[in-house]
Task: structure prediction
Amino acid sequence: MRTALDRLADEVVDHRFKGLPPDAAGLTVGELAAERRSLHRGGFTTPVLTLSAEAVEHNLLSLDRFATRHGLELAPHGKTSMAPQLFQQQLDHGAWGITLAVPHQVRVARAFGVQRIFLANQLVDAAALAWLSGELDADPDFRCVTYVDSERGVALMDAALRRAGAVRPLEVVVELGAAGGRTGVRDEGEAAAVADAVAAVPTLRLVGVAGYEGEVPDADGESVRAWLRRLTGLAVAFDRAGRYSGTAEIVVSAGGSAWFDAVAEAFAELPALSRPVCRLLRSGAYVSHDDGRYRSVTPFNRVPEEGSLLPAFRLWAQVVSRPEPGLVLINAGKRDIAHDLDLPEIQVIRDVAGVVRGGDGLAVTRLADQHAFVVDTGGGSLPEVGDWVGLGMSHPCTIFDKWQLIPLVAGDGTVTDYIRTLF
Result:
């Protein structure tokens, strides 16, 4: 994986990468990082998305400590960042592996040497299954666990793997869903039927159960915990029925970034089973956290003694117009900013002289493709044309994918590295 990551540093900086200094064109990413330019004086153009080096490190440590404290393994959801450098940092901080959602993402992770992958979807694409089978057969140290949630899905997977000449069985977990939610079986009888279908084919091996509590409709503490009790109950029932034949451990997995405290509680109550249990948490948004959705729902709000997370994103845009009294336009919009959950918030203003002040009393009211509308909501002081505006944003899963190369910035404003995303 280090060799593949090293190759990222050899990529040439050019017009593909938003916000980077025009005079850096032709340098490699590694050469530009070695210059340790100042974000504000080093030629960066706006808009430019940044990640705080200190916040990322804090978040990595915080969730690793939480998982360790509660006897959990962590397989963070890589779809959040699709950044192999962050995958490696997560693995370096003790992660069991990386969770992914679709075959392309698995291919990216494998290209960078990830040896344990949890695929949180039922995989019925024949071409993808043939590729995955080849990866498993070629590398005895590679492990991939994926969902199953229907008898038809099991049949399609078996047929594709047989055609591919698979040697190693593909490890699967039965996904438990919820009525009105996303994927997954809706009841325990259906789960048993899917498990029986897996047992009837040689190409698959049942190793556990899994699901995502965040898809419980109108999720709250009571409904999430009730669903988690169903999940752990299913794991126990399968074990008592002898459904885990041929596996050395039982995988029980859940956990986004909003309810990992409830997951830890439920998994701690699992009784002793016939095999060791891998209690696998899949939170992904924690690595960057945010200034919106996850700031409000992180479990560390409920249990602050367990840890904390820091928002790592800041997007810098520039005032380009003050067309009428009380209105400012900055040069970042829907192409640059997550807008599916919340509008960004104005955190800081840096004027043309380099003087920094807070953004109190100012708000973004709407976004166009390449502009954000900023108004004074009471007591604020609107920035002038040319001033830089620092924005906090909501929902990491729709921020990372808008930026291919993201400056990693130290607290003093020095850019220490560049994070490559591969969406």
